Amino acid sequence: MSRETADGAASEQAVPERPAVEVDGLGVVLGSGTARTEALRGVSFTIPYSRSVGLVGESGSGKSTLAKVLAGLVPIDTGRVVIGGERFSAGTSRRRRDPGLLQLIPQDPFSSLSPRRTAGQALAEAMDPLRADARRHRSAIEEWFERVELPASAAAKYPHEFSGGQRQRIAIARALCTRPRIVVADEITSALDLSVQVEVLELLAQLRAELGLTMLFISHDLAVVRHVSDEVAVLRSGELREFGAVEQIFTAPRDEYTSRLLDSVPGAPGFRIRD
Ligand SMILES: Nc1ncnc2c1ncn2[C@@H]1O[C@H](COP(=O)(O)OP(=O)(O)OP(=O)(O)O)[C@@H](O)[C@H]1O
């Protein structure tokens, strides 16, 4: 979105008035019969453009369900989400998302990258689904590999030929090469060794700053969330228990559940990975 400047030129930097993401009274029911679960219940929050919201909560609290709703992979039962001004609700929630609007970076790139496609093909497919030819998009693919600090030769390799950290770099490149304004990162470092986690997080932070990305960053690792978020949303059993600025959440949580989550962090309350 752009606005007219004083001299009449459109400004790319202009900040749109609506938030990038609005989640309003969101409810999602999964499964049926005895497996029926209210995965999300009355969840509301917003993410302004270029901000990063960390989403935390215990296993089963509904974090991945929320990620999938935003990506259009899980239908909405009640409430609505508005992404880049486009409204999705019960009847429309699985409408195909514009790839330039929002991209999901999944937890496990090994299962999301096809074993039969080279890394270059995976990027070509993301950039141009109708003419997914790696040769046709060679220079753009090479540029993206450079951005995620992989050699150009990576384009010809298959997922099993990479380490976990390299595969996550490919998943980041594949998501970002469609030039989304918003990314949802779902536990993207949880399967990686600590040193590799730090490298991937630093890369993501750098790309986020360069591209002005809006981000929902999901992790059960509170130290990591503190490092990458401006605001933090705390989910418990499908409900939003607390939403606030990162320092407020970590130093003066208002909800007793948030306090308990923080207490479970090693070395809490002084445990931190930045500064
Ligand atoms: N297909 C399904 N059918 C029924 N219930 C489901 C289904 N998928 C997930 N659930 C339930 O929905 C709830 C939310 O699950 P979700 O995967 O969103 O949690 P999460 O916070 O991402 O957990 P984790 O951190 O373990 O990935 C859980 O109680 C889970 O058991």
UniProtKB/TrEMBL annotation:
It comes from the Bacteria. One of its GO terms (biological process) is transmembrane transport. It holds the Pfam family ABC_tran. InterPro entries: AAA+_ATPase, ABC_transp_ATP-bind, ABC_transporter-like_ATP-bd, ABC_transporter-like_CS, P-loop_NTPase. Keywords: ATP-binding, Nucleotide-binding, Transport. Coiled coil: none annotated. Gene3D superfamilies: P-loop containing nucleotide triphosphate hydrolases (3.40.50.300). Residues 21-262 form the ABC transporter domain. GO terms for molecular function: ATP binding; ATP hydrolysis activity. CDD domains: ABC_NikE_OppD_transporters. Belongs to the ABC transporter superfamily. This is ABC transporter family protein. It comes from Murinocardiopsis flavida.
